[in-house]
Specification:
By secondary structure, this protein is an all-alpha fold. The protein contains eleven helices and two strands; from the N terminus they run H-H-H-H-E-E-H-H-H-H-H-H-H. The chain has one domain. The longest helix has 24 residues. The radius of gyration is 18 Å and the shape is globular. The chain starts with a helix and ends in an 11-residue tail after the last helix.
């Protein structure tokens, strides 16, 4: 469950980087806002959980459009500048969330309580549903990027922006859609993991570090690499935390990052960027 959701979250960050060359440090705050959408719409107002996921995707997608048009557009292809401005956005959103929602942890009740059995083995129903939703979204997004004209245009811009412009692709439109797309994935990830953990203004700061490890290990700009690394780190966190504790898991995370950078700096499935 953790691996699938981390892969979904990191995929949004990867799409933004591959198309805009912007390292969006504020991606974690979009995840955090998705968790608060789930808290208020589902826990407080009683809206159906699956509809809440759609609301989180829509609201955070709109926020992504605003961020692209008014903040990130001048920093496309400027990795350092984009990182600095996204760090500012992250701090701004986090402080606004602290003043709006408070700093106390908010718990979201399980949207799918109970136990279900798979091959005579009991599993929490909530976790199984989250796994299927996350994997379904990952498969659907992969098909979208490969089979639709818009998805193919996004891949073309990611691979060669100048050639895409010569072919008549509107890169401004693609960049807007990329940030909306990535922001929606962050919001859905936050809404999915909100009932499993807790929601507060600081949850984005911890998960964004894991997302950067995922996209570096998988390969900057590689969609398949992000999904693969998300599952790898999800399994390490789950089983390592159970067997050795959270401190050892952090050591394993960063040791894996260092080893990958030493052996294959472009990541498992990535390519070199100038």
């Amino acid at each position: 469950m953790i691996g699938a959701t981390y892969g979904l979250f990191a995929l949004g960050l990867t799409v933004v980087f591959s198309i805009m060359r912007v390292v969006n440090f504020a991606h974690g705050e979009l995840y955090m806002l998705g968790g608060f959408v789930a808290y208020y719409f589902f826990a407080e107002w009683g809206i159906h959980y699956l509809f809440t996921l759609l609301v989180a995707a829509a609201l955070l997608g709109l926020m992504g459009i605003v961020l692209e048009k008014f903040i990130f557009r001048p920093f496309r292809e400027n990795i350092l500048g984009g990182f600095i401005i996204s760090l500012g956005v992250s701090l701004l959103v986090q402080n606004l969330a602290m003043n709006t929602f408070g700093i106390v942890d908010k718990s979201i009740p399980s949207p799918f309580p109970g136990i279900m059995y798979l091959l005579s083995t009991p599993f929490p129903k909530e976790r199984v549903v989250i796994i299927f939703i996350s994997i379904g979204l990952l498969v659907g997004l992969k098909i979208f990027l490969q089979k639709t004209k818009l998805g193919q245009a996004m891949r073309a811009v990611a691979q060669e922006r100048e050639a895409s412009i010569l072919c008549g692709i509107n890169t401004n439109t693609i960049s807007v859609f990329a940030l909306a797309f990535g922001s929606s994935l962050a919001g859905v990830s936050g809404a999915l993991l909100g009932p499993v953990f807790v929601v507060n203004p600081f949850v984005g700061s911890s998960i964004i570090l894991k997302a950067f490890i995922i996209i570096i290990v998988g390969g900057m700009g590689s969609i398949e690499g992000s999904i693969l690394a998300g599952f790898i780190l999800g399994f390490i966190e789950s089983f390592g935390g159970f067997l050795f504790g959270s401190v050892i898991v952090s050591i394993i995370f960063f040791s894996l990052l260092i080893i990958i950078l030493l052996i294959k700096p472009s990541g498992l499935l990535g390519r070199e960027y100038e």
